[in-house]
Amino acid sequence: MAAVAPSILAADFANLQRDVEMLNTSEADYIHVDIMDGVFVPNISFGFPVAQAIKRYSTKPLDFHLMIEKPERYLENFRDAGADILTVHYEACPHLHRTIQLIKELGMQAGVALNPHTPVELLSEILSDLSLVLIMSVNPGFGGQKFIENSYRKIYKLNYMREELGADFKIEVDGGVNNTNARSLVENGADILVAGSFVFNSSDPHATIAALRKN
After folding, report:
1. How many CA atoms lie less than 13 Å away from 131 in the CB half-sphere?
2. Residue-averaged pLDDT of the chain
3. Which of 7, 14, 41, 94 measures 20 to 30 Å from 23, CA to CA?
4. Annotation-wise, does 197 bind a ligand?
C-alpha cells in the first residue's frame, strides 16, 4: 500500500484552511509543501507566513520540498514553519552532506530530490544518511505536467540500490501521478506518491486519495 502526500500547491489559496482541514479528514499520510523561489525553478510559490498557516491548521506531517537556491540559508526557518520532512535538491546543494547533517541536527527528517535528468547513482555516497529520496517525474516548477516515462527506470534502480545497501529511506515520486501509473510506480519501488491537481481537481478528493493508497 502506498503512502499519499497531496501537494497543497494545487489547493484553493482563497480557502486554504478549508482545504487543509479536508486533507486532515482524508487518508492522506502527509501534506506536501512545495517551496519555489523563481530562481532554481521558473515559478514562485509561497513563503514562511503561508507555510506557518498550513502548519497551524494541519494535523498531518508536513513534507517540505525546497525548489530553491542555497536552501541551507533557511533550514531553521522551515523547521520553525513546521516541516517534519525537509527535502533539498541535489542540483542546488554543492555541499550536500553538510546540508543533510544540518537538517537532521535541527530535528527533521532529511530528503534529497533529483530532477528528471539527474542519475540516481549520484546519491550513492549519501543514501545511508537519508530518510527520503524524491524522484521528480516532471520538470519542477509547475503543476499539471505530463509524467516522464523514464521515471520508472530511475525508481527501479534506486530501489535496487536501497536493497543492496540495506537502507530504509523512502522513495517518493512527484509529478503527473494518477491512478493510471500509481500501481506501476509502487511495483518499481515507490513508497510515497505526491499528487496535486489530480487530488484537488477531482470531484471527490477523499475517494481519490483512498484509491491512490490502495496501490
Report:
1. 15
2. 95
3. 41
4. yes
